[in-house]
Amino acid sequence: MRQQDVKDWLKAYGRAWIEGDPDEAAALFTVAAEYHETPFSEPLTGRDQIRQYWQEGAADAQEDVRFSAQIWSIAGNTAIAGWQAAFRRKASGRLVELDGVFRVVFSSSRNGVICNRLEEWWHRRESQS
Length: 129
Fold this sequence. Notes:
The chain is of the alpha+beta class and 129 residues long. It has helices spanning 3-19, 22-26, 46-59, and strands spanning 29-36, 44-45, 62-75, 78-89, 95-109, 112-127. The protein has three helices and six strands. It has one domain (3-127): Nuclear Transport Factor 2, Chain: A. The protein has a six-stranded mixed sheet with strand order 2-1-6-5-4-3, with helices on one face. 23% of the residues are buried. The longest helix is centred in the first third of the chain and has 17 residues, at 3-19.
């Protein structure tokens, strides 16, 4: 797996979040992918559950999204990346800042790589401003 493939995937992930596009987000994952939002939550399984998560949690609930990511490591088909995001909650106007880590397991696709499994660890800071 090439570093550019991972960089392109992270860029597409960020674009889907910024644009609030659940279809674009779901297309980054295999049909049977597992998406672990936190180590203690049940995984989302498959594109339909991932799409619904992105619709409810991002598209319907967030605005003014910013996202950046840095590749920390690639070993075989697994990448580790740090990421940062910020957005406003549509309902309350509160600013949310996130700092996290992805572990992403990929397989090859015609367009580079596609995610089989995503695991997240993140911290949140939320304020009125």
